[in-house]
TrEMBL record:
Record's keyword terms, sorted: Membrane, Transmembrane, Transmembrane helix
Bilayer-crossing regions: 134-155
Pfam families: DUF3426
Protein name: DUF3426 domain-containing protein
InterPro entries hit by this protein: DUF3426 (IPR021834), Znf/thioredoxin_put (IPR011723)
Amino acid sequence: MSLPLILRTSNSSRSLATRTGSALLPAAMYTQCPECLTIFRIGAATVAQARARARCGVCRVEFDMLHALADQLPADPGALLPQHHGGALPLLEVPLTRTRLGQRDLFADNRERSAAPPAFVQTKGHSAGGRRNWPWYLGAVAMLLIAVGQIGFAYRETLAQDARVRPYLDSLCAKVDCLLPPRREVEQLALVARDVRPHPSVPGALMISATVLNKAEFTQPFPIVEVVMSDLEDRKIAMRRFQPQDYVDSLPVIARGMPTRASSTMNFEVLDPGKNAVAFEFRFR
């Protein structure tokens, strides 16, 4: 069963026959919709109107009229028009007429327009597009730097205590004159001596003395100290948390911090929890 042939004439079609009397030019051309296979009769004005692009009046599909272009209808009503694919650039050797030198200006506007190539022609990108896009690239880099800065500011305390990042931050602050929070590693604090005795001047209170060694390679601030007391069954019966100003009397000493590879003496005053308190523990925060 052969495919139906629908022949429609474009309203903008015009005869290509010129007044030169030449019989070499066809009176009309034909193109075929690739979707519904409808054949249309077209002229030069229709081809030039949208750079050989058209929309099928039957199925509304947009297609390239040059892809199936013929100057004659097929002998078989069910046959397809010949398909054209991109090939070598043709050389036009037989001139029909030649425009005079004085008439070149009539076509100046058309030559200056950038014609879009047919769909089957592949074109290379233009370097001008890359030059026009440099503000977008610069803006993207700026936004990335701002995002990194915001993340760094939000996590500045954590980053300042990271041993892997701290040397780079120290070098940066030395150049831009910024101040970082003191580096702190309570794991490098070691309790080397401790003593518990009744308070010499306060009844019902205890005086606890502790000697803490800073084993770190840097000076770090005095820690928050938790003193926990427990009974024989290791049950917690008393606990108190001390800030640096609670066990160090001198503010300048607190400001200087704990020197590296040096020990510091800390004195804590607590209420006597009774005879059940037989053990105590120090925790550094």
